[in-house]
Amino acid sequence: MNVPLIIALGAIAIVVFFLLRKLFEQEQRQNENWETIARQLGLALSHSNGLPHLSGRYSGYATNLRVYAEGPTTLEISVNNPSRFRLYVTQRGRLSRTLAPRELDDIALGVTEIDARFLIKASNPVLAKQLLLSEETKSALLRIRLCNISVADSIISFENLDWVTAEKVVDIEYWLFVFKLLTRVAQEVDSL
Fold first, then answer.
1. For the residues of the chain, what is the DSSP string, one character each?
2. Number of domains in the chain
């Protein structure tokens, strides 16, 4: 018998066991956090390919949140949007101008931190400023992480570009905050 080989294989087996256990515990914690979010918002939680999907009505709006294995976590809220208002808010970066809808007007809010951080485009700049310059929305924009927010037709979409991965713990408070922010935007859009 080759004792050093047996010891090495045993050590590898122990390391693999603990790594798998850690991954399992992280996945379990992620699921528990999504369950907490769904319960607090009154939404149904299901899984597709092992990834969470929250759906139902929140604050009177049809709501869907999907976590993707490769890509952003996406939250969509259905709205009436009688004025057909369109808005696009994205983190500034190399591709932000390229990916932004060209038919929308660029907007500067006059808030240095927000204007430096986000590219904002809208179909109606006056309405966009009215919506985005409320104290609640300004402070929310400063709090949100890497994301895209868009209002188009009857959907408000939030893409979390700070992807949820197995290594990251789902931040319950942050997602509750995002749901509240988007429903506040939905209420404003419905009243335009």
1. --HHHHHHHHHHHHHHHHHHHHHHHHHHHHHHHHHHHHHHHT-EEEEETTEEEEEEEETTEEEEEE--SSS-EEEEEE---TT---EEEEE-STTHHHHS-TTSEEE--S-HHHHHHEEEEES-HHHHHHHHTSHHHHHHHHH--SEEEEEETTEEEEEESS---TTSPP-HHHHHHHHHHHHHHHHHHHT-
2. 1
- pLDDT for 134-187, tens place per residue? 888 888 888 876 778 888 888 888 887 665 544 455 788 888 888 888 888 888
| Whole-prediction pTM | 0.75
Domain ranges, residue 178: 3-190
